[in-house]
Amino acid sequence: MAVLVFARARTTQRKTLGLLTVGIVMMALSDSAFAYLTAVGSYHTGSLIDLGWVAAFLVLGVAALVSTREPLAELQPAQVPARARLWLPYLPPGSRMPSSVISGSAKPDMNTTQASAAW
Q1: pLDDT tens, 41-62?
Q2: Of 1, 2, 26, 33, which sees the most CB atoms within 10 A?
Q3: Which of 43-47, 73-77, 91-95 has the highest mean pLDDT?
């Protein structure tokens, strides 16, 4: 997702977008490490993971400050996407639904977890 945003962004916005990406990745890594350490029972307050959250918020704040120094973009008229592009994200789940209903009704001994995993 970040690669697509960078590809479409103007060069003046790339520094801000880069900082936002770094901040979000740092937050995700800190959250993942927190979840793991909590699951194994070795997390304690004041650990290195807490510094990851603080650093992530600092990077996000720096991104906000950097964005105020970027020149304002020229206003361009909004382009309305074609209907096909609006419906495109719904095609993969919609194409799977009939097959999951058929497979779910063909196997009455499936429990809820198995049925949701089949979908």
Answers
A1: 999 888 888 999 999 999 999 9
A2: 26
A3: 43-47
Q: Please report which confidence band the pLDDT of residue 13 belongs to, taking 50, 70 and 90 as the band edges.
A: confident
Does residue 80 form part of some domain?
no
Compute the CA torsion angle 103, 105, 110, 115 (nearest 10 deg).
60
**Full-model pTM:** 0.57
Considering only CA atoms, which of 53, 49, 20, 10 is closest in space to residue 33? 49
How many domains does the chain contain in total?
Answer: 1
- Residue 49's domain comprises 2-68
Residue owning tokens 């997702």 = 1
Domain presence at residue 86: no
Asked if 47 and 21 count as a contact pair (C-beta separation under 8 A), the reply is no
In a domain, 93, yes or no: no
Query: Would 94 be classed as within a structural domain?
Result: no
Q: For helices 14-40 and 48-68, what crossing angle results, to 10°?
A: 160
